[in-house]
């Protein structure tokens, strides 16, 4: 419980940095991949996360999106963080971005916090203790795929996946209730974790995109795998398919993983 309280406190501190940001578009650089931007606030929030988390847990490893700070996540405790998930939204003032903090122990996610400062919404979970939104217990839905609202990430940084992304989106549109895209994988996953959406998929994600939400999804009764059904990778890029067990299973039954 002490760790969860610490993580939430630090996430809120980082959320205040996001809310106070000014002149964001004047402080942008590009990194690997097309349309892949970083602002000075991404860097500032990550430095804040690193400083605050490692001051409390100096023995831990740190794996973050910015500055190439990517330590080992398979030995001991490791923090896997996305300082601002939804950077393009953040740049545009779209106000759909979150702070994401996942905690791994010996390569297994044991704790996750995702904080949306714009709505003051805290998603959080600890292994074996359930998933919560602002302290209220939440669960994934038990919808069939036909009755599911599906969040589809478009992997904009990886042009080689564009055709495959939209082919899958069309197939899901034909087989589900409707599609959604927030521009933040972590927030889409949290929507699934609390039953507001029913399934989320994307062809390419990184560990910081899903680490915290993985705990939330699983503690809410859901399942997270790659699109081919294989386990997620905490030390590299992979695909993602997360949702209630029923919709997740029907995705494979309909052969959508073969697209």
List the helices and strands and how they pair.
Layout: H1 2-19, E1 28-30, E2 37-39, H2 40-56, E3 61-64, E4 77-85, H3 87-92, E5 98-105, E6 108-116, E7 121-126, E8 131-133, E9 136-138, E10 149-152, H4 162-175, E11 178-180, H5 185-193, E12 199-205, H6 207-219, E13 223-225, E14 238-243, H7 245-253
Parallel strand pairs: 3-4, 10-11, 10-12
Antiparallel strand pairs: 1-2, 4-5, 5-6, 6-7, 7-8, 8-9, 12-14, 13-14
Helix pairs in contact: 1-2, 5-6
List keywords for this structure.
five-stranded mixed beta sheet, 14 strands, 259 residues, globular, alpha+beta, 7 helices, seven-stranded mixed beta sheet, 33% helix
Strand content: 25-35%
**Overall residue-averaged pLDDT value:** 94
- Report helical residue fraction: 25-40%
Tell how many strands the DSSP assignment holds: 14
Shape: globular
- Strand line-up of the largest beta sheet: 3-4-5-6-7-8-9
Order of helices and strands: HEEHEEHEEEEEEHEHEHEEH
The tally of helices reads 7
Q: Low-confidence segments, ≥5 residues, pLDDT <50?
A: none
Describe the fold and architecture:
The protein has helices spanning 2-19, 40-56, 87-92, 162-175, 185-193, 207-219, 245-253, and strands at 28-30, 37-39, 61-64, 77-85, 98-105, 108-116, 121-126, 131-133, 136-138, 149-152, 178-180, 199-205, 223-225, 238-243. Strand 5 and strand 6 (108-116) form a beta hairpin. The model has no long low-confidence stretch (mean pLDDT 94). It is built from seven helices and 14 strands. A seven-stranded mixed β-sheet has the order 3-4-5-6-7-8-9, sandwiched between helices. A five-stranded mixed β-sheet has the order 11-10-12-14-13, with helices on both faces. Helix 1 runs antiparallel to helix 2 (40-56) and helix 5 (185-193) packs parallel to helix 6 (207-219). It has 259 residues and is α+β, with helices and mostly antiparallel strands. Helix content is 33%, strand content 27%.
